[in-house]
């Protein structure tokens, strides 16, 4: 099986996981993937390889970083995490100097007019 077909199938599986239970978004995502695949068939092999790499990156992003939310009757959102969702531990934020984080860390934000 060619790399492009493998990437195409992986993208379809990723959309199935990321957009499970939301048929409208699922169909739109798969339609966009199919459209891009069809448009790229006649490109030179170097460009095809680049597009395959990008599609694989998109697939990984969808699997690891997209989480669906559902609004419950009590006004709270329920997030549908799955076993492949990447959960961070905020270590990079803890290690950074808080002064570099701007207003989110409570420090005053400089304006263009400030000297």
UniProtKB/TrEMBL annotation:
Query: What is the official name of this protein in its record?
Result: Mitochondrial zinc maintenance protein 1, mitochondrial
Q: Family per UniProt?
A: Belongs to the complex I LYR family. MZM1 subfamily.
Identify the keywords attached in UniProt to this record, alphabetized: Chaperone, Mitochondrion, Transit peptide
GO biological process terms, alphabetically, are: mitochondrial respiratory chain complex III assembly
GO CC, alphabetical: mitochondrial matrix
Chief localization: mitochondrion
Q: Which GO terms describe its molecular function?
A: protein folding chaperone
What does this protein do, in the record's words?
Answer: Assembly factor required for Rieske Fe-S protein RIP1 incorporation into the cytochrome b-c1 (CIII) complex. Functions as a chaperone, binding to this subunit within the mitochondrial matrix and stabilizing it prior to its translocation and insertion into the late CIII dimeric intermediate within the mitochondrial inner membrane. Modulates the mitochondrial matrix zinc pool.
**InterPro entries from the entry?**
Complex1_LYR_LYRM7, MZM1/LYRM7
Q: Where in the cell is it found?
A: Mitochondrion matrix
Report quaternary structure and partners. Answer: Interacts with RIP1.
- Source organism of this protein record: Hyphopichia burtonii NRRL Y-1933
């Amino acid at each position: 099986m060619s790399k492009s077909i493998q990437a195409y199938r992986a993208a379809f599986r990723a959309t199935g996981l990321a957009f499970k239970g939301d048929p409208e978004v699922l169909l739109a995502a798969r339609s966009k993937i199919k459209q891009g695949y069809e448009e790229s068939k006649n490109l030179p092999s170097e460009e095809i390889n680049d597009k395959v790499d990008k599609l694989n990156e998109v697939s990984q992003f969808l699997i690891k970083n997209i989480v669906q939310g559902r609004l419950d009757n009590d006004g709270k959102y329920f997030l549908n995490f799955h076993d492949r969702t990447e959960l961070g531990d905020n270590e990079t934020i803890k290690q950074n100097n808080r002064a570099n984080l701007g207003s989110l860390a409570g420090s005053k934000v400089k304006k263009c007019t400030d000297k």
